[in-house]
Amino acid sequence: MTQLTLVIGSKNYSSWSLRPWLVMKELGLEFNEILIPLYTPESSSKIRQYSPSGKVPVLLHETQTVWDSLAICEYLAEAFPNKHLWPEDKAARAFARSISAEMHSGFANLRENMPMNCRAKYPGKGLAPGVQQDIDRITSIWQYSRQNFGSSGNLLLGNFTIADAFFAPVVLRFVTYDVQLDAISQDYVKAVLALSTMQEWLKAAENETN
User: Fold this and answer.
1) Residue in 157, 35, 12 with CA at minimum distance from that of residue 99
2) How far apart, in whole angstroms, are the C-alpha atoms of residue 197 and residue 120?
3) Would you say the pTM of this structure is higher than 0.90?
4) Architecture (CATH level 2) of domain 90-197
5) If pLDDT is split at 50, 70 and 90, which confidence band does 81 have?
6) Is 4-83 a domain of CATH 3.40.30.10?
7) What CA–CA distance (Å, rounded) separates 110 from 135?
8) What is the model's pLDDT at position 1?
9) Which residues, in sequence order, are bridge partners of residue 9?
């Protein structure tokens, strides 16, 4: 496959960018990375050089421009079918797609009140109305995933899938805001943080200056 380029925002803040970046790293792909710092006067104009939507992430491949984190991950799943970014089992695959789509479009209260900030620590903050309900729904997804589909490994569907990439930013939010979790969810958080790819992202976020 010819060279891939992923355009992302600041690693400290860009939850949407983390998702396809993590997938590509877990696939072991070689790709160019264009990082555009967020929340600067030039951010919007720089992003629009690559993104029709004016948002990151964006995947550039040959003549293709693919934007939106879910679309990028689906593109990668089609490009690398032998990597099983979705589970092989039909029921597990349907479940993984459902929870990824739910994460992609939902949990507005959590997103608004607990934004991703890898470098910060805000214990006890962000619990505005509706946030705990979002947390409860997420942890119920994690519990069901681990109990029903997770026997082959320590991630949601056992081995790494797109679903883990979609919930990875939530893991970081829960760490930043010191969200109290059940034992299954705590173990899942530890498993995601233990990924060498996640540690690479966090190290880079720590070294950012914006």
Assistant:
1) 157
2) 20
3) yes
4) Up-down Bundle (1.20)
5) very high
6) yes
7) 7
8) 54
9) 36
